[in-house]
């Protein structure tokens, strides 16, 4: 980089001050020291100049110091004529010493600057690697790479990543050609590389066996080998980060494909196993009523109609559970959340259950002053309905429903029964789709094995969870924990977003 006008003026001013101060001090001690002592004063001036001035200015200072010593202090004074050989040797020795000191100091300054530059580059590489390891997307990693190149080089830099076809249309043709050639050849090309040496740019590929793009560093110095190596190191780190993100993306796509296959299998299983039997019953009963209604008694007709209603309700339950499970198994399920009252949700669920189940077998305990909770009311109602229906199905005794606030930000719902209970080894597997517990196999109750899977999916979609525990008095205790947001501002933001849609 070329020094600014202020820096050049400062260099000349420092050079002048060193010569003036050195000559003034030599004149002050001239009567007390020999010519050798005066020569040492100018050696000190030359050494100070070598440390503070640029190389060219310090060399000029060395010649001017010899000239000042000759003009002011070597007889005959105030002329550049030298009478004695010893004086000529002293002046020559001063010039040689000054040039040697200047060369040594300049080399030391270069090595010191190189060491500092290498330290800064090593720190940048470390920081860049850490940033890439935390990158969450390919676009973020590409932005980090661009920022790293802009920070590392005072030269103008350009980056092109694969897939960004129109990113550099405004660049000169030679740079576009160089970037394309670098990506194609997968080698560093440009100044000092043995390929395209006539250019004053570097073109560095991002990657080795798998190329993700290329970087162009413009107007580089021919001897800046360390800078080219640093650019290659940045490209190598960028390629590693991009490769990790590409692999992660492929893994996510593979997992999504696996989930899609699982959902497809779930649909096929529901159709082939759980829907075919009730459909056959409905079809048989409806056909009997259609063709033999006049031959059937009133009791037989009522029995067939009841079976149609029961099987239709069963089909509706299976269909609803299957669809909800498919919806909740997506990566980002679309929940229609709003601020709801848990008392109202529980009340509506209990009202519907009482219409299906005769008798008064459900006890409920709902704490007072429960806060509003941001949930999908339809899904939470389905969760409670499934759990209560299961409890009533596998237990002949009372079923207890309780809702309380266990922590300031945690709502707990418990459904307790006095049924046969669930063995310890089955308390996780029962939440998987189409999995039945031993109590189901030993009972005459029918089920598709979807209800509990849907319940846990609903709870987790809301940021909570569903677990089952054994009761000391016998039976099971299904515990639903849902997070409660008690921030009024989030409520207002939600309402504002709905109004602005």
From TrEMBL:
<keyword id="KW-0597">Phosphoprotein</keyword>
<dbReference type="InterPro" id="IPR036097">
    <property type="entry name" value="HisK_dim/P_sf"/>
</dbReference>
<keyword id="KW-0808">Transferase</keyword>
<feature type="transmembrane region" description="Helical">
    <location>
        <begin position="36"/>
        <end position="53"/>
    </location>
</feature>
<keyword id="KW-0812">Transmembrane</keyword>
<keyword id="KW-0472">Membrane</keyword>
<dbReference type="InterPro" id="IPR005467">
    <property type="entry name" value="His_kinase_dom"/>
</dbReference>
<dbReference type="InterPro" id="IPR052023">
    <property type="entry name" value="Histidine_kinase_KdpD"/>
</dbReference>
<dbReference type="GO" id="GO:0005886">
    <property type="term" value="C:plasma membrane"/>
</dbReference>
<dbReference type="InterPro" id="IPR038318">
    <property type="entry name" value="KdpD_sf"/>
</dbReference>
<dbReference type="InterPro" id="IPR003661">
    <property type="entry name" value="HisK_dim/P_dom"/>
</dbReference>
<feature type="transmembrane region" description="Helical">
    <location>
        <begin position="88"/>
        <end position="108"/>
    </location>
</feature>
<dbReference type="Pfam" id="PF02518">
    <property type="entry name" value="HATPase_c"/>
</dbReference>
<dbReference type="InterPro" id="IPR003594">
    <property type="entry name" value="HATPase_dom"/>
</dbReference>
<keyword id="KW-0547">Nucleotide-binding</keyword>
<feature type="domain" description="Histidine kinase">
    <location>
        <begin position="270"/>
        <end position="486"/>
    </location>
</feature>
<dbReference type="InterPro" id="IPR004358">
    <property type="entry name" value="Sig_transdc_His_kin-like_C"/>
</dbReference>
<dbReference type="Pfam" id="PF13493">
    <property type="entry name" value="DUF4118"/>
</dbReference>
<dbReference type="Pfam" id="PF00512">
    <property type="entry name" value="HisKA"/>
</dbReference>
<keyword id="KW-0418">Kinase</keyword>
<feature type="transmembrane region" description="Helical">
    <location>
        <begin position="60"/>
        <end position="76"/>
    </location>
</feature>
<keyword id="KW-0902">Two-component regulatory system</keyword>
<dbReference type="InterPro" id="IPR025201">
    <property type="entry name" value="KdpD_TM"/>
</dbReference>
<dbReference type="InterPro" id="IPR036890">
    <property type="entry name" value="HATPase_C_sf"/>
</dbReference>
<dbReference type="GO" id="GO:0000155">
    <property type="term" value="F:phosphorelay sensor kinase activity"/>
</dbReference>
<dbReference type="GO" id="GO:0005524">
    <property type="term" value="F:ATP binding"/>
</dbReference>
<keyword id="KW-0067">ATP-binding</keyword>
<protein>
    <recommendedName>
        <fullName>histidine kinase</fullName>
        <ecNumber>2.7.13.3</ecNumber>
    </recommendedName>
</protein>
<keyword id="KW-1133">Transmembrane helix</keyword>
């Amino acid at each position: 980089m070329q020094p600014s006008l202020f820096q050049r003026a400062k260099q000349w001013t420092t050079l002048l001050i060193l010569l003036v101060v050195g000559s003034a001090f030599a004149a002050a001690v001239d009567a007390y020291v020999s010519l050798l002592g005066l020569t040492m004063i100018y050696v000190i001036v030359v050494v100070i100049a070598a440390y503070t001035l640029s190389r060219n200015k310090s060399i000029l200072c060395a010649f001017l110091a010899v000239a000042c010593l000759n003009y002011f202090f070597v007889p005959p004074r105030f002329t550049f004529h030298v009478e004695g050989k010893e004086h000529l040797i002293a002046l020559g020795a001063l010039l040689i010493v000054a040039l040697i000191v200047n060369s040594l100091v300049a080399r030391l300054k270069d090595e010191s600057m190189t060491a500092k530059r290498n330290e800064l580059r090593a720190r940048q590489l470390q920081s860049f690697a850490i940033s890439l390891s935390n990158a969450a997307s390919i676009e973020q990693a590409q932005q980090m790479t661009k920022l790293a190149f802009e920070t590392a080089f005072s030269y103008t830099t350009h980056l092109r990543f694969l897939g960004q076809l129109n990113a550099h249309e405004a660049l000169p043709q030679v740079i576009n050609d160089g970037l394309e050639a670098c990506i194609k050849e997968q080698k560093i090309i440009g100044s000092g590389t043995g390929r395209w040496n006539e250019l004053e740019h570097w073109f560095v590929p991002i990657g080795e066996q798998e190329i993700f793009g290329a970087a162009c560093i413009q107007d580089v110095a021919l001897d800046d080998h360390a800078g080219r190596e640093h650019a290659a190191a940045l490209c190598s780190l960028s390629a590693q980060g991009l490769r990790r993100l590409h692999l992660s993306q492929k893994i996510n796509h593979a997992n999504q494909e696996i989930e899609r296959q699982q959902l497809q299998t779930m649909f096929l299983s529901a159709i082939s196993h759980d829907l075919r039997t009730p459909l056959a019953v409905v079809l048989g009963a409806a056909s009997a009523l259609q063709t033999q209604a006049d031959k059937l008694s009133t009791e037989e007709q009522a029995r067939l109609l009841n079976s149609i209603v029961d099987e239709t309700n069963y089909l509706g339950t299976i269909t609803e559970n299957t669809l909800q499970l498919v919806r909740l198994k997506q990566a980002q399920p679309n929940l229609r959340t709003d601020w709801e009252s848990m008392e109202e949700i529980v009340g509506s669920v209990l009202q519907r259950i009482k219409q299906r189940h005769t008798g008064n077998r459900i006890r409920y305990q709902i704490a007072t002053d429960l806060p509003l909770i941001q949930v999908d009311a339809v899904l939470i109602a389905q969760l409670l309905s499934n759990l209560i229906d299961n409890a009533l199905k596998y237990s002949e005794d009372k079923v207890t429903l309780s809702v309380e606030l266990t922590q300031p930000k945690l709502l707990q719902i418990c459904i307790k029964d006095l049924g046969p209970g669930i063995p310890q080894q089955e308390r996780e597997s029962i939440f998987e789709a189409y999995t039945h517990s031993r109590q189901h196999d030993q009972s005459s109750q029918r089920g598709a094995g979807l209800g509990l899977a849907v319940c846990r999916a609903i709870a987790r979609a809301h940021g909570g969870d569903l677990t089952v525990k054994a009761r000391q008095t016998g039976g099971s205790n299904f515990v639903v924990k849902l997070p409660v947001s008690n921030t009024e501002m989030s409520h207002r933001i939600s309402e504002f977003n709905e109004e602005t849609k």
